[in-house]
Every structure is written in structure tokens, then in C-alpha cells.
Design goal:
heterodimer; A: 233 residues; B: 187 residues; mainly alpha; 9 helices
Chain lengths: 233, 187
């Protein structure tokens, strides 16, 4: 055995307890090593002192039980949520957030407030605006919503929303320049596009009403005139 | 009624089953806590906290040959003890009398700390030296050299690697030897 191991065993003898085999190991080293023997003799009064002090007392089990039962068997204030309930709770929270988000978005689109149109968007020229708008209106007046696939309807809605943003930008410009005729046309367009954007796929009556409005208000003709007037100037 | 039935019934909130499990394991848990703290009131506190935690979490216990209820309870007890030692370390006041001075007093008379006051003083000093170790080192040292648990068992109980346990033991031995050096160095 090396002297360091003997030192370790003396330390264990003071701060812990030596096993019989450890004691034997240490004793045989001490017989051969006077230096370790010197350390051992200095430490001997401290060894096994912890063992002598440590007679394990008996606990007061009854007293402790009253504390334990009071803490664990008191009626629960809130019922424990079982895993299935937890999932229902999470799913309904997500659904609520989704519904609120949907209506909030719809409301903002309707009122045109808070960030609409975005500042980063640049307005189209009147010619491109009319070019973009014409097929949207023609398609809307002529098509049968029931037969249009969902994917196409979603795409149409996105185009309508883009056109709505453009209409609002141009409306602001017209209002700034004091162009009344153009402002009136763009206000009519805004109303039509907002109605188209919020329209559900089954709203046949509203669709018919809007189609009639587009025709009665001569939207296509007014757009054409507007472009002609602009180009002649 | 066997332990398995008691666990099943305790999971269902049966107070008699809780009581039976407590009666079966209470004294053992107290002994573990006492061996690490050396104080009856601290050991009782740890025992209570262990059972409160175990009963509150009993629905998470899954019995299998590798995970017996007694081992599960031991692990909770060891963790509670570790928390307790950490709290104690923060609140501890150190003994100002050096071990070397106490020992000199003993050796000048009859080479044995027969006097009760001296014996108490040494005991306190030894406990302070152990408590000055980081709580995990203290606990591992006690598990290894007071309870003679093997390295593998300690690692399993504390959920750490065996090499981690060995490192803690070697560091603890070095620190404790430093407290003995003034005695050893004296001619």
C-alpha cells in the first residue's frame, strides 16, 4: 500500500468509518511505515469518534404522521387535470386564439385602419390598376361560385385583397390631389371590393347584388374614361 | 395486504394504504436521513418531506423489477437530504476553535477524549469540516464511507456517472486531509 492510501484511510477513519478489511490493510502498512505510524498516532484520538457518538435514536413516527397526513390528505382545492382534459384545454385555447385572430384580421380589413394600406406598398399607375381590376370584375360578374373550386376561390380572394389595398392607396392620392371624380369611383370600388372580400362562398344573393351594382354604376366604363382622360392630358 | 396492493390503493387516494406504506418504510427513511445529518429533528423533517413528496407524486411511480418502491423512496429521501444540506450550508456558522488545539488538550492529559465536552467539541468540528464540503460531495462521502455503499449504487441513487462519484470522493478526501494537516505537521 502507498502512503497516500494510508493517509486516505486515516481520513476515512476520522470522518467516516473504516471497514474491517480497511482497518487490517492500514494496520499492516503501519507496521512497515514509521512516518504513517506517526500520523496515525496523532490522529488516533479522533478515529471512530463519530461511530461512538452515533447511536441512532428512534423517530416519533406518530407526530410525523400527523404532519404528513395533514399535508397529503387535505381535500384538494382544485381538481387535478387529467391528461385528456389537458389536451382539450390546449385545443380549445388554440381554437379561441385562431377565431379571435381571424375576426381581428377581418375587422382591420373592413375598416381599413391600423396599418392598412401598408406604408411600404407603392400605388400602381391608373392604367395598370384598371388592367388588373378589369378581369377581377368580369370574372366576378360572370362566374358561378358554386362551381368554382375552393383553391381558385382562395386565390381570387387574395387578388381582391391586393386590389383593395391598391384602391385605398389611390383613394388617398386622389383625396390629396382634390380629384373628385376619381375619388368617387375609387370609393365605389372600395365598397365593392370590401364586400367581395368578406363574402362567403354561399352568399349567392350578395353576389347577385354586387354584380348588379357593378353594372348599374358603370364601373368598367368609368374606369375606361378615367384612363382615357389621364392619357389625353 | 402486500405492498403492491397498498401502492395501487394509495394511487387511488386510500388513506389506510398511505398509512401502511409509511409504517413499513418510515423508520428506514429516518435512519438514512439521520446518518447524513446527525440530527434527530433534521432527520424527522427530511422524513416528513420525503413522504409528503412521495404521496403527492405516487401516481407517477411505475413499479418494475428495477424500480422498487423502497428504491424510489430512497432516491426522494437522498434528494431531500441534499436540499437540506444546501440550506444548512447557507445558514451555517463556523466553529472558531481549531481541531489542533482541541487535540493538544486531549493529548496533554491521557490520549483519549473521555471528557464529554471535549468529545462534543471534536464531534462538532468533524461535522463542520464535513458540512464545509459542497453538499453533493458531503453526501457522497457519507454514502461511501459511513454507509459503505458501492460506487455503482451511489451513482444510481444520485443519477450521475460512476466517474463523477469517484471525482467527488477524491476531492472530498483532499479537502478533509487539509483540515488534518496542521495536526500531522506538528513535530
Amino acid at each position: 500500500m502507498k502512503c497516500q492510501k494510508a493517509k486516505d484511510l486515516i481520513t476515512i477513519g476520522i470522518y467516516g468509518r473504516l471497514t474491517a478489511s480497511q482497518k487490517q490493510e492500514l494496520e499492516s502498512h503501519l507496521k512497515e511505515c514509521p512516518e504513517c505510524m506517526r500520523l496515525y498516532e496523532k490522529s488516533a484520538p479522533l478515529m471512530d469518534l463519530r461511530l461512538r457518538r452515533r447511536e441512532i435514536p428512534s423517530p416519533d413516527l406518530e407526530k410525523s404522521w400527523s404532519v404528513i397526513s395533514e399535508q397529503t390528505m387535505a381535500p384538494r382545492r382544485f381538481p387535478r387535470i387529467i391528461p385528456a382534459q389537458k389536451w382539450i384545454l390546449v385545443a380549445s385555447s388554440l381554437l379561441i386564439v385562431f377565431i379571435l385572430g381571424y375576426f381581428a384580421g377581418k375587422e382591420v380589413l373592413k375598416t381599413g385602419q391600423r396599418g392598412f394600406p401598408p406604408e411600404s406598398m407603392t400605388p400602381l399607375s391608373l392604367t395598370s390598376y384598371a388592367d388588373h381590376l378589369k378581369p377581377v370584375l368580369v370574372n366576378f360578374v360572370n362566374q358561378d361560385k358554386k362551381e368554382t373550386p375552393d383553391k381558385i376561390q382562395r386565390l381570387e380572394k387574395e387578388i381582391i385583397r391586393d386590389m383593395l389595398l391598391q384602391t385605398r392607396l389611390l383613394k388617398e392620392l386622389a383625396s390629396h390631389n382634390g380629384n373628385r371624380e376619381r375619388l368617387e369611383l375609387l370609393q365605389d370600388m372600395e365598397f365593392i371590393l370590401v364586400s367581395m372580400s368578406n363574402m362567403e362562398s354561399g352568399d349567392q344573393e350578395i353576389a347577385r347584388h354586387l354584380a348588379r351594382m357593378i353594372q348599374e354604376k358603370n364601373i368598367s366604363l368609368r374606369l375606361k374614361e378615367l384612363i382615357t382622360v389621364k392619357s389625353s392630358i | 395486504m402486500n405492498e403492491h396492493m397498498n401502492i395501487v390503493m394509495a394511487k387511488d387516494g386510500n388513506p389506510d394504504a398511505f398509512r401502511q406504506l409509511y409504517e413499513e418504510h418510515g423508520a428506514r427513511i429516518f435512519h438514512i436521513a439521520y446518518r447524513h445529518t446527525g440530527s434527530r429533528s433534521d432527520a424527522e423533517d427530511i422524513m416528513q418531506e420525503t413522504f409528503i413528496k412521495a404521496f403527492k407524486k405516487i401516481h407517477t411511480f411505475r413499479a418494475n423489477p428495477k424500480n422498487r418502491f423502497s428504491s424510489w423512496l430512497n432516491t426522494i429521501c437522498i434528494n431531500q437530504t441534499l436540499d437540506h444540506l444546501r440550506k444548512q450550508k447557507r445558514a451555517r456558522r463556523h466553529d472558531q476553535v481549531s481541531l489542533s488545539d482541541i487535540l493538544q488538550g486531549i493529548q496533554s492529559r491521557n490520549h483519549s477524549p473521555e471528557d464529554k465536552a471535549e468529545s462534543k467539541q471534536i464531534g462538532r468540528h468533524i461535522n463542520n469540516a464535513l458540512s464545509a464540503l459542497p453538499p453533493k460531495q458531503h453526501l457522497i462521502f457519507e454514502m461511501r464511507y459511513s454507509q459503505h455503499m458501492d460506487i455503482k449504487n451511489i451513482a444510481q441513487t444520485l443519477r450521475c456517472s460512476q466517474s463523477n462519484v469517484k471525482t467527488h470522493i477524491s476531492r472530498a478526501l483532499k479537502k478533509l486531509q487539509k483540515t488534518l494537516e496542521p495536526i500531522w505537521r506538528k513535530p
